[in-house]
Amino acid sequence: MNIKSEFTEILFEALGGKIDKSKLFLMIENPKYSNLGDLAFPCFELGKLFRKPPQKIAHELVQVMKSPLFEKVEAIGSYLNVFFNKEKVTQSVIEQVISQKEHYGNLSIGTNKVMTIDYSSPNIAKPFSMGHLRSTVIGNALALISEKSGFRVLRINHLGDWGTQFGKLIVAYKLWGHEEEVKQQPIKELLNLYVRFHEEAHDSPQLEDEARAWFKRLENADSEAVAIWKWFRDESLQEFAKIYDLMGIHFDSYNGEAFYNDKMDNVVQILKELDLLQESEGAQIVSLVGLPPCLIKKSDGTTLYATRDLAAAIYRQETYQFDQSLYVVGNEQTLHFKQLFALLEKMGYKWQQGMKHVGFGMMLKDGKKMSTRKGKIVLLEEVLNDAISLALEDIKQKNPNLGNKEEIARQVGTGAVIFHDLKNFRQNDIEFSLEDMLKFEGETGPYVQYSHARAASLLRKGNFKAEKAEIGIQDKAAWSIIMTLNDFPETIKKSLEDLDPSQIAKYVIDLARVFNKYYGAVRILDDDNLTQQRLSIVYAVKIVLKEGLRILGLQAPEEM
Q1: What is the reported pLDDT for 166?
Q2: Which of 153, 208, 369, 513 has the fewest CB atoms lying closer than 10 Å?
Q3: In this structure, what CATH number is given to the domain that contains residue 74?
Q4: Which domain holds residue 47?
């Protein structure tokens, strides 16, 4: 039972079905103060529809709003306020959470539908920086939220594994590289070689010609060039795997830019057959309404990102038959995706309607964008390891006898970094601060994880058995927990609709807060008659906190 949905149904009947249920649902509000009811309905819009003062409508509705669910219904000004029967609602909500466990909040929106999500996408042979964190964790959370909503999700890591930089890298490696050094520290060594190439090419411009020649060999599938490129790619993927493993993230496909090399000529051919290609200063373009033209081939015949992304979109539709396809890529690529979707529509592909660009703001350091070239790069692996070390120190001080300290420190440290990103609305820029991430109070991952561990501890001490759960509400302080638990399925739905994991992050913070307030107000284990009823509420909180953290990509330690 969702009490907001139940209230909507009763309102719909009382209003004679004259307003759409979905509209009514969105109009319902949470009152600012608990003495004004559990939910409130403003009657201002009804005034126009029924041509009566909103206050009068509110008073008339009080007479017809009858349900065993309601303890009291009253009109205050133009608002209809309802107070729910706490016993009935508590019984229903807690029973639902305890019986469904981690399936509580599951939705059927995506049943029998496929979603592809393109996210993370680091460049091989370059460091995995904090700049890549946002796409990685937002994409992972959206994948988990979509799965909870019933979709079959395919996670795609569209690697940056092609381009002229590989010609430069091959030249640099052949001139100054050592196999053992690359094997020991692949990313670091390849970056050093790349930087050295640019330094040397400043005084020896012929190096650029050599680089172009090697990339041409690579494009022509020359065995030596391909072998070196493949080695660089494999070494990079092994390094990336360490970071993904640390964060508990996996992918179904690592098909990057190189994978689509042999698929682009076909796209150009389709555009020709559709008579969409035009020549402009030797280049091939497609005109788009209300957007700059899309560049398909440069004057030297090389294809571009747009061509590659067209090939990728067509391949994914043919391979996966997706209903929805998300691209979790920074806001700076907004125009590119507008052009891509417009071009697919112009080509007559109806399925492009299910494609969305999920943009996000930048990760800032001291208010400025992190930049590889300017040396303002912050390595993600170093941040994660620092966070884990700080979490371990904290655990040693606060709970020195805790077993499995290292694993819990990993869960807390990585969780802190992930949560710090996801609690912000994705379109906003974020200021990087390791200190803020690891606080155990306030809006942080460790605060929510600690609340979960506290709930687990209470259940152990109270010897709680879920199969013998006693359900009821005796403490006024528990009612805000019941109302918050009841909101979980709706929060999942909204976060999916808005493609916004921050709504789940805010939700778990709210649930942790009302639980800790309850913990502070009620001696949960001190009344033999009420302890098991109280623990059933604690158990429900633990289930939902753990599931909320899981769909954000965090783990929930049993002890901290």
Answers
A1: 92
A2: 369
A3: 3.30.1360.70
A4: 3-84
